[in-house]
Specification:
This protein is an alpha/beta fold. Helices cover about 40% and strands about 20% of the residues. It has 33 helices and 38 strands. Helix 1 packs across helix 28 (about 855-860) and helix 24 (about 730-755) packs antiparallel against helix 27. One of its GO terms (cellular component) is mitochondrion.
Length: about 1050
């Protein structure tokens, strides 16, 4: 350690003396300018003080910017509403924190930001959870599955269900709101929107009315995705596909009733031919109304010893032989598919008196699977429906809301009430076998199959009367609008384009209670629907007074019928709108609050998960184009899903769920430690127990002393460091990395504040700065400019990487390290230049980091001296600081080029000194002088001469000598170590040799005449302090 006292020499040598008394002692440590700051190494914020600081950089910030930033520079960020039906998870954190970073950055650009958070409060997920929460009076508190909850409460009145769902949604909104705010997410929380609020519902209904006016809403009886477990129609966006679903695949023969002209003209052909069809939905056989063939495929008639003559695809004969386990004799081949289109067949389970059914052409029939002929049930598949519509064949679907057969299903047999996906299907297969028409059945045919996204159970396709929005009529304008929108990542444009172009209509009706009612009236006598513009406007006026609950609470009131229609008796429909229509009209909130923007879309950015291309992005686009003719947004940003560190989806069964709250309150680290302890080998665990080592949580997960401060910024930094355009991961390693980066940010902030503790606020002009400081500002300008460019493109992970590298590699490992001598020991322009540079680094450091880790930057700000705060705006409020042009001028770039080349020299010196340390020739770098040998007259020599006065500080040695030749006057027997380097494309050598002078007791450099007196530099500094004078 440095000697704190320097005794006056009794031998007449140069020494330090007080101005008052000779032969006294001076405490040299007191003459050093050591760091001084109240900013702690580890956050000392209590939950209460953290909350206070959080309010300053969230609620106070949002209010301030809304009231003070210019209205004509408003940035509109529209929040896609999350479902109000569960606890917050890391997917929520990814979503909301990404939005918050963008909002904060735009405030730093001087824009007034509109960000109104919202919640999607209607729909099946919330209704199901409300029903599952109902507990009976028997004391049974066992959890019900969604399907069980629906069945158990099927007689509950709609108003009761709506009340329960509303209460659940309201409670969830408040809980989630508290969570979002605790993450440092700013927004207009006091005016947050909920899709269940009356004013929202009215705006939604007005969009619906506008679409009615344009003829875009209609009612059809056609197949839709139907969930027997939820008892409602579903949209494509509400499906999940199970890749390992097992169906019963059946091959069935249908006897031909009329062979048609082509087959009848062939010799040796009689009327005992049967068409062999293949299906993975045997339950749909009661709805069979046609057989489909591909007109361009070839077909054959084969003879089966067991099953007679069969008609099949020519390329499927081998498959049929394997299925039947017998040799098949080909009787007729090369039959064109189109030649079969005048043939007919009889349904094997219909009465003999039933009329025959046709064989129809369909180009989606292939020879890849099955028999080349397909069973066609227009009531159970959209392709079948469209094919049959061309022939005026109406759909037939004898299945009820629960997925059970009705009495119309094969009335000759007793199928009523049997589930089509279980007992009913088994009954069908049994009947087919009894009639000797079942050629084969594969009981477990694995394939991709749609499931209800909420109940996780299989769905069916079922023809029912539903309300549809005609997408086909607005598809062209919608696709044109997509071309104008910016997408991040760019692939999002193709995805949204594909979803819209592949959709002709949108089933918007749902057979559930919790939602916005479809304002349709039905004439009691005829059942005909009334959904006119006038009727809907009248119903909206009633809803504005009474609310949507009244649609169910007073069913007999004539008030709902517009006066001009009261000559007939009507009843109200019970269907509700698809929740995607609910959230898809949320743009109306922005239009109402902020108005239209001339020549621009209502909203700057929509940002949600990648699954929203088929959900909210699409529904918002369609409703807006249908209503206004243009897209509601200018930019669409999507993020991936959050997986665990092994790339697995998070689930309770895997035990890999991490909640944002446990990261913030620190409980995650305890749990991670416990998991690490469980994973230890038994003998290791036993040994640790015997040695009474600290708990595993302290060893492997968290420092032994738990930090009490809320760890909000680790959560936020994890989001920023993740490339959100792909699926991200979270776990102990990832969070450790974020924590370590945050710790280094904090340590750098502490160094900056500590060494600016006595700064007087006077900035040294750029031209007077030392060269190394100019170089630091050049590097800082590069970081600031690249960070701004990356904020603009939302490349937050690149900002994290570049700031992390700048912090660790340039600042901590190099620049801040070489400044210590100038900051602690020096005075005058050398120290002032360093402090000015540190101030600029602090200013831009906080500027870059504040959108990502606002709590840390505000904490640093709160510990800053008046000299700092008077020269710098509050980080969260301050406008983005553009680096002065001189920092990036041609001269600065040239200096940067030279210093970057100088890295080779620094590395060579470090290696040479390390060799000396390894050989025990020295213990500390300052025990060495450095000789830099470079070619005479070259650019390298010129540059070294320019920075000669700064070299000893940069190279962390006592003295540096520049030479153009290898030294020959080294002391005999003295050690030396050399390493080559390349400076500005010129070869050089760095030689470490013993320092010539004695160790200065103040600065520790070996530049003093003796160990008991200060070096010339330190003597001058002390003398200028006014406390001591240097005398001989």
């Amino acid at each position: 350690m440095m000697r704190s006292l320097l005794q006056i020499s009794k031998h007449g040598k140069r020494s330090i003396m007080t101005s008052a008394t000779l032969n006294s002692r001076v405490n040299l440590k007191d003459t050093l300018k050591l760091p001084n700051t109240t900013f702690p190494i580890r956050s000392s914020l209590t939950p209460a003080s953290a909350k206070e600081l959080l309010e300053k950089c969230t609620d106070d910030l949002y209010k301030w910017q809304w009231e003070n930033l210019p209205k004509d520079k408003t940035f509109v960020f529209h929040d896609g509403p999350p479902f109000a039906n569960g606890a917050l998870h890391t997917g929520h954190a990814m979503n909301k924190i990404l939005k918050d970073i963008i909002v904060r950055y735009n405030i730093k650009l001087g824009k007034r930001v509109s960000y109104i958070p919202g919640w999607d409060c209607h729909g099946l997920p919330i209704e199901l959870k409300a029903l599952q929460n109902i507990r009976g009076t028997t004391g049974d508190v066992s959890a019900l599955s969604p399907a069980e909850a629906i069945e158990k409460n099927k007689d509950l009145h709609a108003t009761e269900i709506r009340g329960l769902a509303r209460k659940l949604a309201a409670e969830t909104v408040e809980a989630q709101k508290e969570g979002f705010r605790s993450w440092g997410v700013i927004g207009d929380w006091e005016n947050a929107y909920r899709t269940m609020d009356l004013e929202y519902e009215v705006r939604q209904l007005r969009v619906f009315k506008e679409m009615i006016k344009k003829g875009l809403i209609y009612r059809h009886f056609k197949p839709v995705y139907w969930s027997p477990s939820s008892r409602t129609a579903l949209a494509e966006a509400e499906l999940e596909y199970n890749e390992t679903h097992n169906s019963k695949a059946a091959t069935i023969k249908f006897p031909l009733a009329n062979l048609g002209s082509y087959l009848s003209s062939l010799p040796n052909i009689d009327n005992t031919i049967s068409a062999a069809i293949w299906t993975t939905t045997p339950w749909s056989i009661p709805g069979n109304l046609a057989i489909l063939v591909n007109p361009d495929l070839k077909y054959v008639v084969v003879n089966s010893p067991k099953h007679g003559k069969l008609l099949a695809g020519e390329e499927r004969v081998e498959h049929l032989q394997k299925l039947l386990d017998e040799e098949l004799e080909v009787i007729v081949k090369d039959i064109p598919g189109k030649a079969l289109l005048d043939a007919t067949y009889n349904h094997p389970l219909f009465p003999p008196t039933a009329p025959p059914h046709p064989i129809l052409a369909a180009d989606y029939v292939t020879s890849d699977t099955g028999t080349g002929l397909v069973h066609c049930a227009p009531g159970h598949g959209m392709e079948d429906y469209l094919t049959c519509q061309k022939h005026n064949i109406q759909p037939f679907s004898p299945i009820d809301d629960s997925g059970n057969y009705t009495s119309d299903a094969l009335p000759t047999y007793d199928l009523t009430g049997l589930s089509v996906l279980s007992a009913g299907q088994d009954k069908i297969l049994s009947l087919l076998s009894d009639h000797n028409v079942l050629l084969g059945c594969q009981p477990k045919f694995q394939h991709k199959y749609p499931y209800d996204w909420r109940t996780k159970l299989p769905i069916i396709q079922r023809a029912t009367p539903q309300w549809f929005a005609g997408v086909e009529m607005i598809k062209g304008p919608a696709l044109s609008e997509i071309e104008k929108i910016e997408f991040i990542p760019e692939a999002g444009q193709h995805r949204l384009h594909a979803y819209v172009s592949g959709r002709d209509e949108w089933c918007i009706s749902r057979q559930r209670t919790w939602g916005v009612p479809i304002p349709a009236l039905y004439e009691v006598e005829s059942g005909e629907a009334l959904l006119s513009e006038e009727s809907v406007e009248h119903i909206i006026s009633v809803i504005e007074k009474k609310g949507t609950d009244a649609w169910w609470s007073d069913p007999d009131s004539e008030e709902w019928v517009a006066p001009q229609y009261r000559d007939k008796k009507y009843k109200r429909g019970t269907e509700t709108m698809d929740v995607w229509f609910d959230s898809g009209t949320s743009w109306t909130l922005i239009r109402e609050k902020l108005g239209e923007r001339e020549g621009r879309a209502l909203v700057d950015i929509y940002l949600e998960g990648s699954d929203q291309h088929r959900g909210w992005f699409q529904s918002s686009l369609l409703t807006s184009v249908a209503s206004t003719g243009k897209a509601p947004y200018e930019k669409v940003v999507t993020h991936g899903f959050v997986l665990d560190e092994k790339g697995k989806k998070m689930s309770k069964s895997l035990g890999n769920i991490i909640s944002p709250q446990e990261i913030i309150d620190g409980s995650y680290w305890q749990r991670a430690g416990q998991m690490a302890k469980v994973a230890q080998k038994p003998e290791k665990a036993k040994k640790q127990k015997a040695e009474k080592k600290p708990k595993a949580v302290a060893e492997s997960s968290q420092p032994a002393k738990k930090e009490q401060s809320p760890d909000i910024d680790t959560l936020r930094l994890w989001v920023a460091m993740t490339d959100f355009t792909a699926d991200g991961t979270i776990g102990e390693k990832v969070l450790r990395f974020a924590q370590e980066a945050l710790r280094k940010y904090r340590m750098t902030g502490r160094f900056l504040l500590g060494n600016l503790g006595d700064w007087d606020g006077k900035e040294v002009p750029y031209d007077e700065l030392l060269n190394i400081d100019k170089y630091a500002l050049y590097r800082l300008a590069e970081l600031s400019q690249s960070s701004k460019a990356e904020y603009e493109t939302l490349a937050f992970s690149k900002i994290f990487h570049s700031t992390n590298v700048f912090n660790k590699v340039f600042l901590s490992a190099f620049y801040l390290n070489i400044l210590k001598d100038r900051l602690y020991v020096d005075d005058g322009i050398s120290r002032a230049s360093a402090q000015t540079t540190l101030f600029y680094i602090l200013k831009h450091y906080l500027d870059i980091l504040s959108p990502i880790v606002p709590l840390l930057t505000e904490e640093i700000w709160s510990h800053s001296t008046p000299a700092i705060t008077q020269n710098m705006d509050q980080p969260v409020k301050g406008k983005w600081a553009e680096p002065p042009a001189e920092w990036s001028s041609d001269a600065a770039k040239e200096l940067g080029r030279k210093f970057q080349s100088f890295d080779s020299c620094v590395e060579a010196v470090n290696l040479a000194v390390e060799d000396a340390r390894t050989a025990k020739s020295l213990r500390a770098n300052l025990e060495a002088d450095i000789i830099l040998v470079v070619p005479e007259g070259g650019e390298a020599q010129k540059f070294l001469k320019e920075i000669e006065s700064e070299l000893s500080a940069i190279l962390l040695c006592s003295k540096v000598h520049i030479s153009t030749s290898q030294p020959t006057n080294l002391d005999e027997g003295a050690w030396s170590y050399s390493k080559p380097f390349n400076l500005l494309l010129e070869e050089g050598t760095a030689i470490a040799v013993p320092a010539k002078g004695s160790k200065c007791p103040r600065c520790w450099m070996y530049t003093s005449r003796s160990e008991v007196e200060a070096c010339e530099r330190c003597a001058g500094v002390v003398e200028r302090l006014g406390n001591c004078t240097a005398t001989a």
